[in-house]
Design a protein that fits this description.
Blueprint (H helix, E strand, L loop, with lengths): L5 H24 L5 H24 L9 H24 L2 H8 L2 H11 L7 H20 L8 H21 L8 H26 L6 H29 L1 H8 L2 H12 L6 H17 L11
Helix pairs in contact: 1-4, 1-9, 1-11, 2-3, 2-8, 2-9, 3-7, 3-8, 4-7, 4-11, 5-7, 6-7, 6-12, 9-10
C-alpha cells in the first residue's frame, strides 16, 4: 500500500483544520463568546502572528503604494466575510454553514466574470444553477427549529460569496507578494473596522470563559487562520490551484460530518440533498477555480 506523500499529508491537514474550524468556532460562540468580540480578538491575534512571521522571514512589510487601494478593498470584503461568518454560526449551525460554503467555487467563478478576469463555458452555468438549487434546499431544510434560521442561511451565503470575492481580489497580488505579507496587511486593515464594530460587545463581554474556550480560541487562530495559510499556498505552488482546489472541495462535507459528530447537530433530508446538489453543481461545472486560504 502506497504511503501518502508529504504534499498529500499537507493538503489533508489543511482540509482537517478548516473543517474543525467551524465546529470549534460554533462551540466558542455557544460557550460565552459574543460573535463580534470573538471575531475581533481572533483576527487581532492572527494579524500579530502574521506580522511577526513575515518580519522574521522577509524583514519587511512594505507594499507598493499603488497596491494599497486593492489591499484595502480586500480588507473591506474580508470584514464583511468575518461578520457574516460569526453571525452565520451564531444564528444557524456549523453543519449547515459547512454545506453552504461548498458553493464558494461557484461564487468565485461568478466574481471572476464580474471582474472580467475570465469567461465561462455554457456548462458552467448549468452547474451553477444546480449548486444554487442545492443552496435553496439547504435553506428550506434549515428553516426548521432544529437546524437554525433562514437568517443564518442567508449569512452563510454571504460568507461564501464574500470569501470568493476576496479570493479573486488578492489573486493579482500573489504575483508580487508572499501570502504572509498579504495576510499581514489585509488582516491588520480588517481589524480596524472589525474592532470598532465590536466595541459594544467587547465592553459587554464576560472574559471569565474558562481554559477550554481560550485554548480553542488559540487553536482557531493558529490552526485554521495561520498554519493553513502556509500549507495551502505551498500546495498551490507545487501542484497548481486546479488540483489543490479539487481537494479543498472535500472540506464542506468533512466539516459537516465533524459538526454532526462532535456537536451532536442534525441534518435533515433536505439539507443533505442540498449539499449533494451543491457538490454535483461543482462537478458539472468542471472548471478551474483557484481558491485562496478558505479558512475563516
Amino acid at each position: 500500500m502506497r504511503r501518502p506523500t508529504s504534499l498529500e499529508l499537507m493538503l489533508l491537514a489543511t482540509i482537517g483544520l478548516w473543517s474543525l474550524n467551524l465546529t470549534v468556532s460554533r462551540y466558542i460562540l455557544t460557550h460565552g463568546f459574543l460573535p463580534l468580540a470573538y471575531g475581533s480578538v481572533r483576527y487581532l491575534l492572527a494579524a500579530v502572528v502574521f506580522c511577526v512571521m513575515t518580519l522574521v522571514a522577509e524583514g519587511s512589510l512594505r507594499v507598493a503604494p499603488g497596491d494599497l487601494p486593492l489591499l484595502l478593498c480586500a480588507a473591506g470584503v474580508l470584514y464583511v466575510n468575518q461578520v457574516g461568518f460569526v453571525y452565520a454560526l451564531h444564528e444557524s449551525t456549523a453543519s449547515v454553514l459547512a454545506l453552504l460554503l461548498g458553493a464558494t467555487p461557484i461564487f468565485a467563478a461568478i466574481a471572476g466574470v464580474l471582474l472580467q478576469t475570465e469567461t465561462l463555458p455554457r456548462r458552467f452555468w448549468s452547474g451553477a444553477l444546480l449548486s444554487f438549487a442545492g443552496v435553496a434546499l439547504v435553506a428550506l431544510g434549515a428553516g426548521d427549529e432544529v437546524s437554525g434560521s433562514l437568517v443564518g442561511v442567508l449569512l452563510g451565503v454571504l460568507t461564501a460569496a464574500s470569501w470568493a470575492a476576496y479570493s479573486m481580489l488578492i489573486t493579482p497580488l500573489m504575483r508580487r507578494y508572499s501570502a504572509s505579507r498579504i495576510s499581514t496587511v489585509v488582516l491588520s486593515a480588517t481589524c480596524v473596522p472589525l474592532t470598532l464594530t465590536a466595541l459594544p460587545q467587547l465592553g459587554d463581554q464576560d472574559w471569565n470563559l474558562g481554559w477550554a474556550v481560550w485554548l480553542l480560541l488559540a487553536f482557531a487562530t493558529l490552526g485554521p487562520l495561520v498554519a493553513t495559510n502556509v500549507m495551502w499556498f505551498r500546495s498551490l505552488d507545487r501542484i497548481g490551484p486546479a488540483r489543490a482546489t479539487l481537494a479543498a472541495n472535500l472540506q464542506p462535507f468533512v466539516a459537516a460530518a465533524i459538526a454532526v459528530v462532535l456537536l451532536s447537530e442534525s441534518l435533515g433530508l433536505l439539507e443533505l440533498a442540498g449539499g449533494l446538489l451543491i457538490a454535483a453543481g461543482i462537478v458539472a461545472a468542471r472548471r478551474r477555480v483557484a481558491s485562496t486560504q478558505p479558512g475563516e
